[in-house]
Amino acid sequence: xxxxxxAVLSLWLFAACGDSLAQVDLASDGTGVDDSALxxxxxxxxxxAKGVGKRGVFTATVAGxxxxxxxxxxxxxxxxxxxxxxTTSVADQKSEGPNSSEEARxxxxxxxxVHWLVYGYVASTAKLDLVSPDAAPQQTTLELVASTSIxxxxxxxxxxxxxxxxxxTFKSTGxxxxxxYLRKNAxxxxxxxxxxxxxxxxxxxxxxxxAAGDRVYFNLYGYSASTARLVVEVPGAAQAxxxxxxxxxTFTAFSTPGGGxxxxxxxxxxxxxxRAPATKVVHFFNGNFTVSGKVPDYAKYHFYFAQKQCAxxxxxETFNNSTYFTNTKRFxxxxxxxxxxxxxxxxxxxxxxxxxxxxxxxTLLDGLKAVKAAIAIPSVKLMFVAxxxxxxxxxxxxxxxxxxxxLKTIDQVLGDIKYVALNNGQAWGYLKIFPADSSMLRPIDxxxxxxLPLDLSVVAGTITRAYQDVNSHVNLKAKERNxxxxxxxxxxxxxxxxxxxxxxxxxxTVTNEGFTLEATTPEIIAAKLAEKLSGPWLPLPIADDxxxxxxxxxxxxxxxxxxxxxxTFGGKGNGLGLLTGTLGRVGSYGTVSTATGYDLSxxxxxxxxxxxxxxxxxxxxAALKAMVEAxxxxxxxxxxxxxxxxxxxxxxxxxxxxxxxPPALVTDVTARLNAxxxxxxxxxFRSSATSEDIANFNGAGLYDSxxxxxxxxxxxxxxxxxxxxxxxVVTKLKVKPKSVQCGIKAVxxxxxxxxxxxxxSFARLDHATAGxxxxxxxxxxxxxxxxxxxxxxxxxxxxxxxxxxxxxxxNLVTNPLPGTLTExxxxxxSDAGRPPRFSTxxxxxxxxxxxxxxxxLLTPARMIEIVxxxxxxxxxxxxxxxxxxxxxxxxDVWLDTQKPLSLDMEIKVLPDGNLQFKQVRExxxx
Length: 926
Fold this sequence. Notes:
The protein is α+β, with helices and mostly antiparallel strands. It is built from 21 helices and 45 strands.
């Protein structure tokens, strides 16, 4: 357990000890360089006019490789030729980059004469050095993309910031056919690049010359379904692992995109060695340090680094306790995170500690003084950001202000960021600023919203003015679909960037550090969509089972057998069975529910999908069947416009509400209501589709559920209707009358919602095989609160924990009413011996009329209870399904940020204060 505990804290920050510039020992790592090797100056810094060349010759005294290198300003080009003078058109080797940092190499024998030409492409200043063979810089290879599958028509993108000037060589290897595109300081695409390599395989090489600080964006594009790995070779073999003084260029080179509790900006790590408090030493870490192309553990985890560099002999437990869980610190461990706040055009550099770090105010001030003294950035704006509730600063405000350090909490900071990347990626589509009717949007549109609409279907990317909950359906879907999603709080019709592209074809790129919009063409947009829709239609399972089984019968005890009922009862019904098997029933020995004194999951039953298929096949419903089949054919053709789809879907749903329901179905369901929940009148008929909660498609929010009353009579003609209550967005649908027969038809009709059609088409799920079950459980009335919990910290791998979103009453967590906000918490973990620590990054605004709250909706004790139950669910789920966490110890799955999957849970606090875990599904995003 403590192995994982150290990893928890170490991934938040790195550590180093020793001199001001720490380098890896050559004998142990093979990455050192011989500092005794010297360069030979062929001419000193000299002005070179445009169109003028400076020439010379060098005679080799020994065989080997000669390296000629220019540095300076402007733009010169370098040409080499053995035996005679080169020209700009005739040379053995040349280097013609866009600046004066050029390098060219020639292999020579002793006595060879090498003629050189430094030519002024523009008016420049340059010097030329000959690097002796011993001092020729070796190449350091950094892995940018680990070997991964790249589906046809999709990309793996990212960037690399050059720490030194020179030539960067990007190389991909793998299978299939992947192409490589590079671009400096802007996103690279197959249409926009500085350098490209488009061979017929996945083995590609592209080189680009850079200055220190240049950021090179890469795009590894799947021309066909491929598997590829990408590395970059950078000049020089030795890398600085840490420095004691941090300037802006070093921060850029050492830091990595994103951060702990925010995806904004860049994050760098530091460790303060406080073993001798009078002579503290601050070490800033290189988050891009590699050995043989990989980041070693001693550069990821500060415990291992401290062992290597500081001769620390502590156990992991002892090291953690003396670093994080005490005010008498031997080490301070933290990060420097950049933010762009409000209207400021300059960055704020925020000093932050791990959310679970116990750091008293006077101890905190001591650490802030040390970090400030070690930051050498002119006019730097410094801030301390408290990431945990125990990190207070009331007593040290005056001293911090005197130091020039502003003090804020994480929710205050995140509330002042205008741009937030919720899901990085690229999209090609038409920019629609504040569209009037979201139902008319297409998968080739990129809408800009004030607030996310409840029923948003597939779009190419999403931008909102309102801050989204990272646990919202739209964001979780964006992560599973790999579509970009971002917050831009000053978005408007006159926004300087957006306005120029309104209703035009654009290419949107979203990264942690910013977004870009550039023009594209309708042809490229159409091609990108065609690539995504080029796969075969995937049939959904069909099971012939007519049993109405209770959740207890679906999963009496959690085991692998409990996962077999999704094809029979749909995703939601199967999930409720899984919760029953995991949490058990009150009164049963050793169950979680017995420990709480009440049932933690609802008692109910599933209506199998076969009943839906029987209704469609009934002779009395021949017209309905024909309408469904016609809609399926039209949708699969890909030719339906949004208005056409909406009209056909509405007609099919209306036909369902008039459909014939076999009397036996109503009789059987009514009898089961009374048997499973005797004396209960009010129930919820919950949609439970076979196209729901399956791999890479959770279907959340696509289908509808309805409240019914077991004793409610039908209309004489058995007709039913659906009414909606609106308050800015659709919040509730009601079936009238609330009879069993009408509830069945209303749930079945929701299978054909327009947004469900588009989502299934995008995922290539065959509509002809889609089916709908019903999960039935009691309706409990107005709840105190509702919650969404995901068993990872969504959007980052650097904090171990869960994310917990909370909303008061029945206001939606995933898409709250306009003018309201959902509370968002990160439950950060340290180890099994400590309860989670809650960092509230946003407080709730329950109603339009109420102000934003200043306290959490639930007490810390109640949130701890919920998180601890969720841990038990994840551990049990993991043990019952080996593919959830292959090769891992399920008892520790909650402490692993790299686990391939996580769980998405829905929870209610009922009117009596009891908890109700009402849904569990796999989440396949990060």
